[in-house]
Design a protein that fits this description.
single chain, 193 residues, alpha/beta, 8-stranded mixed sheet, globular
Amino acid sequence: MYEFFLFFYFIKSKLLNYFKFKIFDIKFGKNFVVNGSLFLKGKGSIRVGKNVTVNSSYIYNPIGGQTFTSFVVANKAKLTIGNNVGLSNSAIFCSQNVIINDFVFIGGDCKIYDTDFHSIYIDDRNNKPETGVKCASVLIDTGAFIGASSIILKGVIVGKNAVVAAGSVVSKSIPDNEVWGGNPAKLIRKIEK
């Protein structure tokens, strides 16, 4: 019985994703694999490279818990995912620009936001539409690894081959070849070859 459920879930997810990719006009390279059903919202641009695997269900990667992968890309915003990237049960909210370069791994239940979502000022929040919301591009550079349940905030650059420890909140940029962790994230050590 369990095998039948998995087979049905697999087929249903593949069909749903196929139609979503058409509706949202996602451009992607060879060997783009989505395990589970990907949540998509917005009218922005999504470009995915080749050999990219996205897990979007606890069935395919239980590390993220009862979560799934979501890409929310606002009108005129751009989400770019490079080649040979792995992503599990994580959320990306792109109001302007999020770039994930080649050979990046993003662990379960991570969040990447290029916006504060709301202003810190009550008068701005009370405007319809809200004003004063700060946004800044995010770059996860080549070879970086983002540990499970981490949050990457607006304006951050995670450097080449950098590592973010699980459960970290990254509010400022991380240089190449360094391990950062904590809340707020800070340098733990440099990566020596």
